[in-house]
Amino acid sequence: MSLHEQLYQWTARQGLDASSARRLRALSGLDDPPRDLWTPLRLGAGALAAGLIGFGLVLWVAANWDDFGRAMRFGLLEAVTAVSLVAAALLAARRAPLALVAFLTLGGLLAYFGQTYQTGADTYQLFALWAALGLPIAWAARSDLVWTPWALVVATGIGLWMGTFGGHGWRFDGSTVPVHALGFVAYGALCAGLALRPSAASQPWAWRLAVLASVIAVSATALGGLFARHVAPQYFLGLGVMGIGLVLAWRRAEVYAL
User: Fold this and answer.
1) Closest by alpha carbon to 154, among 181, 182, 134?
2) Rg (Cα) of the chain, in Å, rounded?
3) Average pLDDT of span 124-138
4) Is the distance from CB of 110 to CB of 126 less than 8 angstroms?
5) How far apart, in whole angstroms, are the C-alpha atoms of residue 241 and residue 166?
6) Residue partners of 14: CB distance under 8 A and separation at least 6
7) How many Å apart are CA 77 and CA 30, to the nearest integer?
8) Selection from 239, 183, 188, 240 nearest residue 210 by Cα
9) What distance in Å separates the CA atoms of residue 84 and residue 207, rounded to the nearest whole number?
10) What is the pLDDT of residues 95-107, one digit of tens each?
11) In angstroms, how far is CA 24 from the centroid of its own chain?
12) pLDDT at 198 over 60
């Protein structure tokens, strides 16, 4: 919850009049000019640099992929991941962008491993492993620059899991209700976990992405149940989950979730 939303919540809870509410807002410093413009600029520049470095690396590897042997391909991906992690640990000012490079390269390494050795694992298992191995990176970086793509990986993995165990065709009937219900619980756990992070109030973008992905998944499932040949239980399940989410968001005054 942002400071702006907290002020509204405190004002309503304490029953403050307009004069007291204005004084509280003035004391909060919410309307004061930013004290440090360089911090967000450095973060944005670091994110752009990390993205360009990663994109350039992908293009270079793609252009020379056929010239690399299997060992060199693995070595290259592992080296980039290791160097990024070490640099992120040593350079606190550049930790978030470097951790982002490490997290993205880790995903490429896992994808290449699965492609090379044909493990037979489902796609959702790749995303689950990526999320599990990337969690310490995101936790150590303590930045939404890493938490946001991590949340996207987790949300994608949950959706792929639902699609896999829902018959590989998003079948909407009574037999797949437990799958969709467990998927909704997983989305809820993702949103709750990101909301309980120590830095959630000042860095809400990962949580907002998780909420958006959850709403899309629940809405799509409910609509699929509604437009099935016969109205499927998923429609009523989706309505119930959305209702619970609205009540929780209303009680916590989470404007974005509403």
Assistant:
1) 134
2) 22
3) 92
4) yes
5) 18
6) none
7) 44
8) 188
9) 25
10) 888 898 889 888 8
11) 33
12) yes
Residue for token digits 């629940």? 218
C-alpha 175: how far from chain center:
29
Kindly state the greatest CA–CA separation across the chain.
72
Domain map (residue ranges) of the chain: 34-120, 123-258
Centre a 10 Å sphere on the Cβ of residue 43 and count the other Cβ atoms it contains: 15
Contact 219, 211 (CB under 8 A): no
Residue 9 confidence (pLDDT) above 80: no
Backbone angles phi, psi at 9, to 5 degrees: -65, -45
DSSP the chain: --HHHHHHHHHHHHT--HHHHHHHHHHHTTTSPPS-SHHHHHHHHHHHHHHHHHHHHHHHHHHHGGGS-HHHHHHHHHHHHHHHHHHHHH-GGGHHHHHHHHHHHHHHHHHHHHHHHT----HHHHHHHHHHHHHHHHHHHTSHHHHHHHHHHHHHHHHHHHHHHTTTTT--SGGGHHHHHHHHHHHHHHHHHHHTSTTTTT--HHHHHHHHHHHHHHHHHHHHHHTSSS--HHHHHHHHHHHHHHHHHHHTT-TTT-
Please give the Cα distance from 192 to 194 (Å, whole number).
Answer: 6
* Half-sphere exposure of residue 73: CA atoms within 13 angstroms, side-chain side: 19
Backbone angles phi, psi at 156, to 5 degrees: -65, -40
Tokens of 155: 């949300």
